[in-house]
Amino acid sequence: MTTHDGYRYQASCGSFSKGLACSAVISPPSNLPGFLSDDGFDVIVIGAGYAGLTAIRDLCNLGYKVLLLEARDRVGGRTYTADVDGHLYEMGGAWVHWGQPHVYHEMHRYGQTKMLNSNEAEIGCQSFFTACIDGARTSMSLEEQERLVSKAFEVFCNVDDSYGRRLLPYPHEPHHNPDVRYWESISAAQRLDQIRHLLDDVQITTLQAFLVAISGNTMKETGFFDILRWWALSGYTVLGLYEYTETYKIAAGQSDFARCFFEEALSTGNLRFSFQTAVTGIHDQAGRVTVTCASGQKWLAKRLVCTIPLNILTKVDFNPPLPAVKTAACIKGNVNFGAKLHLEVDDTHLLSWVATNWPGTHIFSCRGDGITPKGNTHIVTFGANKDSLSPQQNAQEATAELNKIQPVTVQQVVWHDWVKDPFSGGSWCMFPPGYSFRYLDALRERHGNVFFASGDWAYGWRGFIDGAIEEGSRVAKEVSVCLGRLKAVAASL
């Protein structure tokens, strides 16, 4: 099957195409109608990303009649696997780790614990390269790079003389220690100014490149607290940061994994679904929620789970309107406007190659991430995408920028523009300075009969697959308790 999502540019012939082969596509796109009644469904879930998939799975297993509405033609949300010429490319969320508790629990549940290691240092050049604006270019071994990056991140994150351990002793409870308020209020740029004198030029250049690759925005717009949370969740070390966030991928691909949730829910007989169905309105009145779709069709349920991403939430008409604090949170939003591109380049030489580029335009960091069936290197890059022009120019300019960093022959580019995607409006979630204490709890609060679940406001691995599963599980429990009480009241009458 081919999803409408994603792009492919074949450099050798200048061919450009939209849509990628993907096992996450659901066909037929709907199994409606079915078990409709005057009361409609027990629950409507909007969105088939991991938060929505976890919610439908849990609620269907509890016996509730659930309707899933998804604007895309596939499951997975901001995560899907493209199969291009027999090679799997993770277009969005990719890396997982056994230290991410929610995702690894589900991997065990579905027998998906076989993983691939992205960091194959045994093959290829085994080198690190960094370039900066004044033309300075530094090459070194991966061991030297590890020491350089470790020093830079340790200085950057050492806010308490214990590398963050005292300030963030419980990383899954981000506001546990009130002393983090100051650090939550400053930007990554302000923190760098505080410690700049402790690092040399190469360390500063490399650190900045990695930080903006993580955040998808300028250091001024990136909250320092978000970087500190990644650091703490990864065990307060650079080796942990590498291992938890960019080393291990599910061998079968994220799309195969996402289908496991969907198919378990479907097997209960309690799930109805409609893909390619964008929601435009949510009306909560008299104990019932009415959902209006772009086609004009309406659906009714006792409760609703909304997993729409933070930057898209205000595009839906809520009646009654969302609380002012939640609206303000959406307007300020996720500041990650990053770009992830996959490039297939000749031979295997760059499989163990890592590079940073500061300041970059399309590429801030890149690394080898596998060998294609043609015997070429798969390079994954992270950069900026907010001001990109056409998709074709995106691919051509990224190819040119990679060649400035490392002369290569690019065979093809495969990517998804998450920033211009009308159903995401950005990449994995990163908060600006001063956001978390003000808005995080408000984003998680229900609004009447509408419950909100998204990896964008998870307490733990926010912005990761793990955080989305955390949220879907949380809200499914809250909804089931609510419906259980409703059922008990009805039985007593």
TrEMBL record:
InterPro entries: Amino_oxidase, FAD/NAD-bd_sf, Flavin_amine_oxidase, Flavin_MAO
Domain Amine oxidase: 51-479
Required co-factors: FAD
Enzyme Commission no: 1.4.3.-
Binding site for substrate: 382
SUPFAM superfamilies listed in its UniProt record: FAD/NAD(P)-binding domain
Reactions the enzyme catalyzes: a secondary aliphatic amine + O2 + H2O = a primary amine + an aldehyde + H2O2
Amino-acid positions noted as binding FAD in the UniProt annotation, renumbered to this chain: 70-71, 279
Oxidoreductase listed as a keyword: yes
Keywords in alphabetical order: FAD, Flavoprotein, Oxidoreductase
GO molecular function: monoamine oxidase activity
PANTHER family referenced in this protein's UniProt entry, alphabetically: AMINE OXIDASE, AMINE OXIDASE [FLAVIN-CONTAINING] B
Family listed: Belongs to the flavin monoamine oxidase family.
Protein name: Amine oxidase
Organism per entry: Aspergillus sclerotioniger CBS 115572
